[in-house]
UniProtKB/TrEMBL annotation:
Keyword Membrane set for record: yes
PROSITE patterns: SOLCAR
Family to which the UniProt record says this protein belongs: Belongs to the mitochondrial carrier (TC 2.A.29) family.
UniProt main location, coarse: mitochondrion
Organism listed in the record: Pagothenia borchgrevinki (Bald rockcod)
Gene3D superfamilies xrefs: Mitochondrial carrier domain
Keywords: Membrane, Mitochondrion, Mitochondrion inner membrane, Repeat, Transmembrane, Transmembrane helix, Transport
Pfam families found in the cross-reference section: Mito_carr
Annotated Solcar repeat ranges: 6-89, 102-216, 225-312
Protein name per its UniProtKB record: Solute carrier family 25 member 48
Gene Ontology CC entries for this record: mitochondrial inner membrane
Keyword Transmembrane helix carried by entry: yes
Length: 316
């Protein structure tokens, strides 16, 4: 991955390709993860999967994917481009050569900076994705509240009010415009604080394990890694990162799914305290099994596609 140039665009292009492939692989389980963390009525992962399939068919698992496919590809491009180029800049500054391998402290610093940088672009993307994934439940809840208020002074039957098949948002652009109109620009960054708590340590436990596993699986320092080794190292790193990030991810998902019309949480601390008091400590590990399972194929696909794309671009 090291070259003589301090800044290279091929890292960004490879990240773009890797990001697109990881979204397609991981979005169905991402929908399950979001429903478990921010939704209601699901007993466990299997029950959630079966419920989504029965009520919404296979397409329910891909709800809200068009926006991540367009945006997370750019997001991963920026993340991997920033990470690799910052590595080279630090190596050039400290050792006089951008090709010099970063030490563990350097790698930790770069990973944390990458996590911090990613929130600026990733928070609005995550918010729109989560609200599109959750909108069936959100609309149903609003309709039931409306039906309850009308039933006390109206003869209108409840079934004429509740319409769970209706969508709150017509698509990602409508979701963005509705959020801006109802909550302002800060509405798009709701949950950004929790995302910082998730992504700064999360990316540290993403890139460092990947680097360590790659070093363990590499036959010798001069040889290239086998694609199978890249796939395994990337998958293990993804599972480790996502499982450890689950508590912060739960808080972030709940804050971002919390629309203005049905605002439940005042902020990060209130969300943590309220969730703990009403559901116990186990709520912060809701979706951990999904994250562990989902993290492996997503990250293995991401790293493998990224590394193979880099090898292809740098073969010319």
């Amino acid at each position: 991955m090291q070259t003589s140039k301090s800044f290279r665009m091929d890292d960004f292009i490879a990240g773009l390709i890797g990001g697109a492939s990881s979204v397609v692989v991981g979005h169905p389980l991402d929908t399950v993860k979001t429903r478990l963390q921010a939704g209601k009525g699901y007993k466990n992962m299997l029950h959630c999967i079966l419920t989504i399939y029965r009520k919404e068919t296979v397409m329910g698992f891909f709800k809200g994917m068009s926006f991540p496919l367009a945006s997370i590809t750019v997001y991963n491009s920026v993340v991997f481009g920033f990470f690799s180029n910052t590595q080279r800049l630090i190596s050039k500054y400290r050792y006089g050569d951008g090709r010099h391998p970063c030490g563990m402290m350097d790698l930790t610093l770069v990973s944390m900076l990458t996590g911090l940088m990613s929130v600026g672009l990733g928070a609005p993307v995550d918010l729109v994705k989560i609200r599109l994934q959750m909108q069936t439940q959100m609309v149903l809840a609003e309709n039931l509240n409306l039906a309850g208020s009308l039933s006390s002074g109206s003869n209108m039957p409840l079934r004429s009010i509740a319409m769970p098949s209706q969508s709150l948002y017509r698509g990602p652009i409508h979701c963005i415009s509705s959020t801006l109109q109802a909550e302002g620009l800060q509405g798009l960054y709701r949950g950004a604080g929790a995302m910082i708590l998730r992504d700064v340590p999360g990316y540290t436990l993403y890139f460092i394990p990947y680097t360590l596993f790659c070093n363990l699986l590499k036959p010798d320092a001069s040889s290239n890694l086998h694609p199978g080794a890249i796939w395994l190292a990337g998958g293990l790193a993804g599972s480790i990162s996502w499982v450890t990030a689950t508590p912060a991810d739960v808080v972030k998902s709940r804050l971002q799914a919390d629309a203005a019309l049905q605002r439940k949480y005042k902020g990060i601390v209130h969300c943590i305290v309220h969730s703990y008091r009403t559901e116990g400590a186990q709520v912060f590990f809701r979706g951990a099994s999904v994250n562990a399972i989902r993290g492996f194929p997503m990250s293995s696909t991401m790293f493998l596609t990224y590394e193979l794309s880099l090898q292809f671009f740098r073969s010319f």
